[in-house]
Amino acid sequence: MDGTRFRLYPQPGFLDSFAEPEIVFVSSPPGSISAGPADDRMYTLFPVGKSEPYGFAANPGEDALAPPWRGDILPPPEPDAQGHFDYLEPGTPQFEAAHLFGCVRFVLDIWEGYFGRRLPWHSEKHFDRIELSILPSLDNAYSGYGFIEVGGDRKHGAYVPFSLNFDVIAHEVGHALIYAEVGVPDPEAPQGEYFGFHESASDLVALLSSLHFDSVLDNFLKATRGNLYVLNEVSRMAELSDNAQIRIAANDVRLGEFVNGWTKEHKLSEPLTGAFFDSFVDLFHECLLDRGAISRKVEEMSDHLLATPEYGPVMQAYFDEAYDRAPDQFRKALIDARDILGTFLADTWQRLNRNDLTYADVAEAFLDVEHEHTGGRYTQMFSQNFAMRDIGMVKVGPQLAPLDEHSHANSIRTQLPVD
Ligand SMILES: [Zn+2]
User: Fold this and answer.
1) What domains does the chain contain, in order, with CATH numbers?
2) pLDDT digits (tens, 9 = 90+) for 276-292
3) In this predicted model, what pLDDT tens digit does every residue of 101-160 receive, in sequence order?
4) Which letter does DSSP use for residue 158 in this model?
5) Distance from the CA of 400 to the center of ligand 1, in angstroms?
6) CA 266 to ligand 1 centroid distance, Å
7) 250 CA → ligand 1 middle, Å
């Protein structure tokens, strides 16, 4: 491997099953990342004495704060003699800075792979690079114009920095990517389901990116034995409940719930994320079939037993046996499904119009992409998943309350050029 080494927590480091950070390579050649860390796309810093997050005015009537930070900073981490950052020890601000940078670079690499090209930042016209800022006083994380800024979580007692939370960082990179690829709606144009789409896409970026960690793939397969049918049940497997992204994605929310209007864009995002997650599960089964790791009879069995008491145990017994026979094929099939969905999503997002964007538009573009790639092999499967969520069948009602001050998508106002 030619890349630069970092140590990343695939899941928040306080969870037992992921107590150790995993060594990953990012694409940057060793020696190309300087102290900060910093490269030609972004620079990381841990400001000292920064009281307000970017995108908000420090005092009423003043302009919103924008990068770059010109004040003091904590000493940045330096690369080792070979240019790597994996020698840093957790528990230091230097590790946090390297972890934040490493996560952003790792996710960017993955999605540049799916897009097949460099992904520009939305703020490229005004900023050569984006600033990755660590601000412990912030109880949130924002992706804004020229920056990604992360605070931490104090809700559960001790302070847990988001700079160590891969899901949160990957989600923010997802927002940055959608701002750049889809854009921001004209203030005068109808906004449709743009905000719900934004959250959904960001969650999907985080989910698919997390499946690029060996330990996440292994844990996922170990917990389910490849039986993703269980994720569609009401009581999901306890072992997976510590994976926030799967918890969000494996939902059963339908768009019909929002015909009278909506308030929280993250709730509104769930039917779309759910439809794509169901499609991911279907793709995984198709990839298992292609590899001969399961037989068609399992689908018939599933349809036949659905909603009977035997369903759970019979399906699990089948998968336990199939998984023991060919665990490597299960792992490869999971990777195949991940990369097919990632590629289709990347192709879909580039086709969307930022104004008056609806989930039906997203579904239509996705089905077009699928048809171009496969000639329609998965069309029926995917169409059913959208229909199951009422996508394309109902009209979402109006926004009933202004966006939450703290919502991620609210950083749309921090997406406007600062000059
Ligand atoms: Zn968000």
Assistant:
1) 4-181 (3.10.170), 194-388 (no CATH)
2) 999 999 999 999 999 99
3) 999 999 999 999 999 999 999 999 999 999 999 999 998 999 999 999 999 988 777 888
4) S
5) 19
6) 7
7) 17
